[in-house]
Specification:
Largest sheet: 6 strands, antiparallel
Number of helices: 5
Structural class: mainly beta
Order of helices and strands: EHEEEEEEEEEHEEEHEHEEEEEEEEEHEE
Helix content: 10-25%
Strand order of the largest sheet: 1-21-18-23-16-15
Radius of gyration: 22 Å
Number of domains: 2
Number of strands: 25
Strand content: 25-35%
Distance between the termini: 63 Å
Length: 366
Amino acid sequence: MTQDSLFLDRTGMPAQGDLDLWEPVVIPKEAIDAEIARLADLPRPANGRRQSLIVHPRSTAPGLGLAPGIQVTLLVLKPGETTLAYRHNATEVNFCILGGGTSVIGGRRIEFGQYDVWNTPSYVPYVHENTTGALQARLTYSNAALLERLNIHLAEDDPAPAKTVTEAGGHAVADGKRVNPFGTFQLDNGSWLMPYETLINPPSVESPTLHWPWQAVKQNLDKLEALGSDYVGRRLYLLYNPMTGRTNGTTPAFFATMTIRPPKIVDRPHRHISAAINYYFSGSGRSTVEGKVYPWKAGDLMLSAPGWAVHNHASHDEHVYELTVQDQPFNIAMESLLWQESLKLPPLVLGAQAGFATNRDTVAAE
């Protein structure tokens, strides 16, 4: 391909099936604690956001992330501090790892504590506050890295209040309930045609801010310990946001799950196109990824499953609790989510094909 050419000849080139997987990486608790302390020692910035990106060694700008397409940010607020309002067109999973406080997101006020999770919808102004007497630290997972790579990440500090525009020829009427008179219709061969008027006014789905308090989640999660050693699934709950529908998300881009691992539980090896990032906040164990063993402990953050890497996890002598964030919903929406629950079974395109089953109906759980 020459400098002035727009064509790159691929005639007869065989399929490119080999992936250059990013290596798993463990960010130890000690390093996270040191960075929290460093950020807390800085003078308060004008926008109030003391923050550091947690970036994989192989990540490059634009789109710096701990996994391709997943940006992880460590944020710190000292007692009594408040951030300036901020909004962007990414969506977020928020996770408090130290202290507590308040988030005001699109007018909804959420009081959160350690290990609580809550989401931030796209383009909704939000403010974080530390209303406690202790240091606050949060991890935020967003698809900003992907949007930056696509050159479409829009962000602003101190946004002006939103206005509702209803005039004809401009924005749609706020309630969005009018019936399009032109209609979408089917051709004789089964294909469809849709008019422009429907294209630019798709059905809207409310995107709420939801809050999953850790103590409420834990009460339900602990019941999964009753699933015996013969259970072949993983003992977890998805922090589900119904607006994501069939893509099973916490946000339209990511799911967040809370997992309990009783002592000495070993998962069977599996793999999936979606990348997984785990934060372990109780217990210790190991992950085996592409044949290499990575130990971890409470307070460690880990890129535990680069896309399509064979992996499994095991707990040591204590109960393990962990938050896992994956970009599964995004991949389901793109029809790219290959998943191999057992290496003895062929991969399936989850969301387009019927998925896998566990043996939960044959094992006891409260």
